[in-house]
Amino acid sequence: MYKSDTKFSVLGLPVHVMSNYPYWLLQCLQEGRGTHVVTLNAEMTMQAERNSSLAEVIQNADLVIPDGAGVVLYLQCLLKQEVQRCPGIELAEKLLQEIGQQKTPTKIFFYGGAAEVAVTAAEFWQQNIPGLNIVGTHSGYHSPEEEQKLQQTLAQLQPQVIFVGLGVPRQELWIAKNRHFCPDAIWVGVGGSFDIWSGKKTRAPRWLANNNLEWLYRLYQEPWRWRRMLALPEFVLKAFVYQFTTRSINSARC
Ligand code: UDP
Predict the structure, then answer these.
(1) What Å distances lie between residue 6 and 15, 37, 77, 227, CA to CA?
(2) How many A from CA of 78 to the centre of ligand 1?
(3) Is the pTM of this model over 0.85?
């Protein structure tokens, strides 16, 4: 399978670094190259330490982008790489904008979020970019029987871009298990992006995001996240231990 070329390791997980992610995805789209995109942040990295299925899915993903500030700081400070943060929601938005400008229509599908959220998000995009061809949506809360229907719908429609917003790790595991229904599609786990596009939630102000503090805004908006966010200090600690031990092993080898 074709993978992007510049790859780094963040606590043993891959991160692909390139200057233009949307362009790379447009190429995949043109060539009908099935692609799973993972948007990696510190929280997901810590989840992967405890969940080997998630770790395996991330290892096998075709594109892993540096979504979170922690991952970017790791690449910048510890691996000395000039890397920009690429939030998954922004990659998804750029991809939609690019697709909307193309002459050949691309079939898009939104799956995830509470009832009506994906529909409202799709309406929002359809109004903003009339050239888009959103062929279907599905809520992320449903029975196993409905899931079967969803699988049939996907197999029948063969969307070329499928955004899955079920949260981590549900969306990554779901994509890995179901991508064979649309083997040529670009599958992206988009977390809570439908909530933002539907107007249910708002994103952090840009000055917070630019200062690597988007997580603080999410904590303010959703205080229940505090327990999940303990993963951030854990990530920092692990990052230093990992770097220190790897360096000692390497220098011991020399
Ligand atoms: N969600 C869903 N089905 C579920 C659980 C969650 O559709 O069974 C949706 C939820 O409504 C929300 C998104 O998944 O829109 C998770 O968003 P969050 O911002 O928590 O994602 P994460 O931080 O994990 O990327």
Answers:
(1) 8, 15, 18, 33
(2) 31
(3) yes
